[in-house]
Each structure stands twice: as C-alpha cells, then as structure tokens.
C-alpha cells in the first residue's frame, strides 16, 4: 500500500518546531492550507508529482525564506513567478512541470542558486533570463526541452561557475561557439 495524503494543514504539524525536511512526493494532494509552507520554516521540500490542481500558476513567495531546496518536478504548472523567490535557495527542480513561461524573473532573488533543473519543459524564451547574474550556478539541466540551437546559451556562458550542463535529448544540430565559453565546465551531456 501507498500513502495517499490528500490534505495538508498546519494543525497536523503542530508541535513539530524542529522539522526541516518534508517529502510529500507521489501523494495525491487535494488541498494545502494557505501559508502552509511559509509557516513551517522548512529547509528542504519535495513536493514532486503531487498533482495539486490549484497550483496551475506557481508563485514561489508561498515558501518560507529558510527553504534551501525545493523539488516541484512532475507537477502541472502553466507559469511560474520567481519574483519573490527566497534568497537562501540553492537547489530548484522544476522538471516536467509543463512550464512554458517564466514571469518576473529577478535574478537577484536566485543569486545563491547552484542547481537548476528545468528539464522536459518547453520554455519559450530562454533569453529573458539574466544568466550572467547567476554567479553561483554550477549545475544546469535542460534535458528533453526542445532546444534546437545553443545561441540562447551565449549569455549563460558568461557565468564561469557552470560545471555540469545537461542538454541531452534535444534537437541540437550544431554546437557553435557558446560551449567554448564555459571555461569551468567539467561535464557536458549531449546524449540521446
């Protein structure tokens, strides 16, 4: 048998003042009380594949300023607002979330991010990112993301911290000059 948690309410977690990590992966959550993630002061949240209907537009302001790692993969979002993302976040996974648009990107809010996974999405405009401001980004994954050329990564290559770049399972037909500017790159995945 599997856990089938449907509702998350603060009252259920009353007294758990030292909880730092919460994994609710693969549950079928119907509702999450407003402010739930913000009031628990969690550092690590795995809310992947919970299929919460009300999360069609994700605003990361819903999370506590303590959060360092969030995995929201395999949920179905239409858009994401990174305007008020927390300063301490070091890892964000939004793999296969059906995101096509990232709104209000202020990279100053994600300057501490060192790992970003946007794989299996079809983000329409990669050039709206101010990649060069992501000074701590060391790992970036765009696996199976309908990328056809690397020109949109030219600005990203100004960031000399990228050590791992995953562009596997895309439709890239030439590498171009963008890759040669990643002078800290240790692992490049262009596999199929």
Task: Label this structure with key terms.
192 residues; mainly beta; eight-stranded parallel beta sheet; 1 helix; 13 strands; 3% helix; elongated
Topology:
Elements: E1 7-8, E2 21-23, E3 31-32, H1 36-40, E4 44-46, E5 57-59, E6 69-71, E7 79-81, E8 91-93, E9 101-103, E10 115-117, E11 139-141, E12 164-166, E13 187-189
Parallel strand pairs: 1-3, 2-4, 4-6, 5-7, 6-8, 7-9, 8-10, 10-11, 11-12, 12-13
Model description:
This protein has 192 residues and is an all-beta fold. 3% of the residues lie in helices and 19% in strands. The chain has one helix at 36-40; strands at 7-8, 21-23, 31-32, 44-46, 57-59, 69-71, 79-81, 91-93, 101-103, 115-117, 139-141, 164-166, 187-189. An 8-stranded parallel sheet has the order 2-4-6-8-10-11-12-13, with no helix packed on it.
Distance between the termini: 35 Å
User: How many β-strand stretches?
Assistant: 13
Counting DSSP H or I runs of 4 or more residues, the number of helices is 1
Taken in chain order, the helices and strands follow as: EEEHEEEEEEEEEE
Poorly predicted segments: none
Coarse structural class: mainly beta
Structural shape: elongated
What percent strand?
15-25%
How confident is the prediction overall: mean pLDDT? 80
Spatial strand arrangement across the major sheet:
2-4-6-8-10-11-12-13
Could you describe the largest sheet, including whether it forms a barrel? 8 strands, parallel
Helix content: under 10%
| Cα-based radius of gyration, to the nearest Å | 17 Å
């Amino acid at each position: 048998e599997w856990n089938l948690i449907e509702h998350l309410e603060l009252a259920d977690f009353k007294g758990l003042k030292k909880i730092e990590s919460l994994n609710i992966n693969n549950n079928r959550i119907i509702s999450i009380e407003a402010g739930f993630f913000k009031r628990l002061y969690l550092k690590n949240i795995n809310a992947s594949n919970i299929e919460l209907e009300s999360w069609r537009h994700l605003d990361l302001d819903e999370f506590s300023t303590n959060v360092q790692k969030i995995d929201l993969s395999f949920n179905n979002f239409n858009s994401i607002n990174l305007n008020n993302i927390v300063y301490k976040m070091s890892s964000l996974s939004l793999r296969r979330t059906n995101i096509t648009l990232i709104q209000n990107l202020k990279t100053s809010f994600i300057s501490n991010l060192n790992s970003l996974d946007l794989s299996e999405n079809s983000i329409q405009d990669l050039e709206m990112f101010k990649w060069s401001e992501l000074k701590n980004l060391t790992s970036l994954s765009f696996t199976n993301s309908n990328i056809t050329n690397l020109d949109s990564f030219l600005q990203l290559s100004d960031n000399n911290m990228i050590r791992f770049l995953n562009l596997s399972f895309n439709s890239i037909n030439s590498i171009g000059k963008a890759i040669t500017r990643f002078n800290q790159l240790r692992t490049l995945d262009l596999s199929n």
